[in-house]
Amino acid sequence: MTGVDRGVTGRQPQAVRSALAVLQEVARAGAGVTAKEVADALGLPPATTYRLLNLLVGEEYLVRLPDLHGFALGAKVAGLAGVIAPARVPTAARRVLADLRGRMRAGVHLALVAGPVARVVDVDPDLPLADPSLVETHLHASAVGHLVLAEADDWRAVVHHPDRLLALTRETPSRGEQVDACLARVRAQGWAGQSGQLHEGVGCLAVPVRGTAGQLVAALAVSSARGAAPVEHLDLARSTAEQLGPLLD
Amino acid sequence: MRIDQLPLRSPVAGLRRRGLSMVEVLAQSVSALAPSAAVVAVPPFVMAQAGAATLPVLVGGTALVVLVGWCLTAFARRMAAVGGVYSYTAKGLGPGAALLAGWALVVGYAGIAVSALVGSVAYLVSFTGLDPPGPAVALVAVSVGLLATLTTVRGIRLSARVALALEVVSVGVVVAVLLVLLAAHDGGSGTGAAVVDGPVSAGGVATGLVLAVAAFMGFESAATLGVEARRPLVAVPRAVFWTPVVTGLLFVAAGVAQVVLLRAAPVEVLTGDVPIAQLADADGLGVLPRLLDAGIALSFFACVTGSINALARVLFSMSREGVLPAPLGRTHPRFATPAVALAWASPLLVVVPAVALASGVRARDVLAGSLTVSALGYVLAYVLAAAAMPVFLHRIGELTRPTLVAGTLAAALSAVVLVVAVAGASWSGSGAMVVVFVVAWLPGPVLWLVLRRRSPETLARVGVYDQATAGSLLPGQGVRR
Questions:
Q1: What is the 3-state secondary structure (H, E, C) of chain A?
Q2: Residues 178-197 in A contacting B (C-alpha not used; CB under 8 Å)
Q3: Residues of chain B contacting A73 with CB distance shorter than 8 Å
Q4: Whole-model pTM above 0.90?
Q5: Which chain B residues have a beta carbon less than 8 Å from that of A50?
Q6: Domain boundary among A49, A74, A99
């Protein structure tokens, strides 16, 4: 943000309160609620409500449904909440993961994805990730993160400080154009692979797990301490991701 | 609409999504409007019509355009469209009116592209100080058109940046020239005063108003960047509203300066091709008149790229709906621009003026003719879009009293301007241009009538925009019963 900081002045505190109330009312009423219904429920003047709704849609916290009069929460709200609840993995999915671990000599991990948020929910007990929270917080430096960013319209709106990306290793894509190139590759090939971007000498590949409507619901990651992305496991990982899709949707 | 039925892909996928910054979106509107060319060229024309009422007419024209711009923001805040005003009209008045408005817009963008191309060539020739024969001028037009097309295929990002830079330079030159001329002004009065302070007639005021509105044509073209803009529901309405506001201030200020300057000038200067350049020449300003020529040539070039950009996106939108053949909806694999639509539209826009110039028609006549055709197209599109706004808001249950009043007023006043424009063009001997417009615009109504009989399901798709997809919603949220 630029400009002079004048603090929150005048009628702005009330506007902020009203905006949050509108957001909460859409969450409470459910997807498809109309502007008029929101205004009635909150007792706000219609013109004010419409303006606040348009503002929240502009910032992508809310989404206007294709009929143009219904509203729903946007994927960006997951970033507000910071968690994916409930972050439980069905037993059937855990069995599929265990089966895959028995068939390859590499670490197999699962991260659930909602909008711009990834949560590592099942780490390989034998070949664990060094630090799952790094994967979740530095999306530009991990294969799972690349899948999440490639799915977003504008990755710069998703990551924290897009102009000051942390270089965790010498391999980390920390400049904007490096990330652009990396994501273009991911979109073209349909999976992500990286070597040494998160930890020196550790490679990883991630394949998308998609729900029935095609949306990204999770990422299946295969990590290897041999430096390169373990592409020899790509086909097996992809077929497993197809099995996981219906279980996690 | 059930939220689990949302599509995975946007119907307008293929363009480079969410890449353009606020400034680049603004650049599209500014370049299609070509402010420096407009503020220099239009006020003398208005003076010749409106006489002593020139300033109120300039202010009135600006106010009407700002009002139309404000009406368009009601759409721009709610849907990210590629077809711009065409898609907006569809959401309010339905597919029939949308095709009428959409094809009028196509004629508008094409007409302005032709006149800007010719304008660019004319000022370029004036800059070099040569007097080349018709075929040579036509060759220059082809080269300029080719350059503009390549810029637009290469990507809106490059063309928007180039356009904005050119525009800033040329506005700077225009302001500098006007300030220098004002500083040198001795307060005297010349034969121009007879026109500048001339009698006011209702017809003159109305025609002046049409010209003033025509100066702003293209201001709404940022509305075609709904997919390509970052945060489109914020950036596009800002560009569509603030472009006419800021340009309007410049326009009125330049109008005041020119009233003062031309009052003191001989009447031949006022009615000449380029009054301000002639004044600058007469005052012996040395290099400034040449700079002014170069600046306006650049502004016109930016306007060519801006208009072609917008035109191709409207055609792209129509193709994605099935109204036009599917190949027009293909995008360039590397640059993600509507390359096929660009490749089809541009040659036509270059060949028409090139042939006219080669056969010896004066640049000024081509410019005036294409401008008239384009003005009719734009104003018709504005009338329909402004009328569509309150209907649209009523349909989605978000109509308020100010929006109802503004939409009705904007539509009614624009309709008056349209009628006056048609009548004025017929009186002033450019009635042929009205015929050209009607012929160029006929595909719109014809498409509508044909599709209504043959393929109503295609018509139902009219108005595609970058709608919500499965991935844009928070997963697992409750649904309203």
A1: CCCCCCCCCCCHHHHHHHHHHHHHHHHHHCECEEHHHHHHHHCCCHHHHHHHHHHHHHCCCEEECCCCCEEEEECCHHHHHCCCCCCCCCHHHHHHHHHHHHHCCCEEEEEEEECCEEEEEECCCCCCCCCHHHHHHCHHHCHHHHHHHHHCCCHHHCCCCCCCCCCCCCCCCCCHHHHHHHHHHHHHHCCEEEECCCCCCCEEEEEEEECCCCCEEEEEEEEECCCCCCHHHHHHHHHHHHHHHHHHC
A2: none
A3: 473-474, 477
A4: no
A5: 398, 400
A6: A74
